Amino acid sequence: MANVEDPRDFVHQPVMLDEVVTVLSEVPDGVVVDATLGGGGHTEALLNANSGLSVIGLDRDPVALAAADTRLASHGQRAVRIHRRFDEMAEALRELDVQRISGCLFDLGVSSPQLDTAERGFSYRHCGPLDMRMDRSRGITGGDVVNSYDQGALTSLLRRHGDEPNAHRIARAIVKARPINSTVELAEVVRDAVPAAVRRSRGHPARRTFQAIRIEVNEELEILEGAITQALSLLAPGGRCAVLAYHSGEDRIVKRCFTEAAGESPPPRPGLPPLPDQQAHVRLLWRGVRRPGADEIDRNPRSEAARLRAVERLEGGRQ
To answer: What is the 3-state secondary structure (H, E, C) of 17-51?
Structure first.
């Protein structure tokens, strides 16, 4: 099990590495923002693949940044690391006097080192405190959510962030079992709350609950749309934005942001015509999503949920 305080233990296998590098290598020379730097795997590969690029890496997790510092040290000033949330991208770039970027990458969700470190509280598989914060210097914890949200609020967030069909049962059981102080306690409460058939099905019955609480704690969906909007507005012509999403809620937001920017917003209601005068300022690099291949999933089962989307900034698109 990883030691949360030691960045040497933050070893993350980047997902869809070849596909991401291919997308972001074919951009004009300049600055690429890695909005979710993590251990720096995607950034390292991109810098090795294209000598005309430098990377500004953002991450809210100080342990991840420390790991990236070590991994990217040989690249010097071509790899700048900043402790910021990705919705603070525009502000961070202004401070560095960067006007336009050639590319941006978002690799959403939680990384394997974070999941595998018990003290972080992200996993139902390891006993630890109910923390779940990416940045442990600020914000509410998973324990705050579990022990203070009323039953209705818990039910809502389990449905909204976890697509949990047994949300009402689980929320009622959580409220009844309070106080809940550890990941293992929460996992047991959830397991006991769901029907026996669910307990026998594939996957741990607490997976969706932990996902939903983590998303709530870190405001992952609330800040995503604004961050993507910032990234698209900063792209130079020919610049590209790529997003790896692992959750249906994330992917819906990415799809909506990209299709609207490509001038392809759906009609306001079924049966109505599309909205008029939609100007495209990006083009979709492909329709739908790309997913990891079977070989990658065999090597890294956690990559199976990944969905990659990407767009390219058009000449003359609106600012």
So the answer is: HHHHHHHHHCCCCEEEEECCCCCCHHHHHHHHHCC
In tens, the pLDDT along 24-40 reads 999 999 999 999 999 99
- pLDDT bin (cut points 50, 70, 90) of residue 2 is very low
Domains, the chain, with CATH or none: 7-113+220-313 (3.40.50.150), 135-217 (1.10.150.170)
- Alpha-carbon span 317 to 314, nearest angstrom: 6
Cα separations in angstroms, 278 against 233, 261, 273, 274, 275 = 16, 9, 12, 9, 7
Burial class, 237, CB count within 10 angstroms (exposed 0-12 / middle 13-18 / buried 19+):
middle
pTM: 0.89
Pick from 139, 52, 56, 142: which is nearest to 104 by CA? 56
**Is the confidence at residue 107, as pLDDT, over 60?**
yes
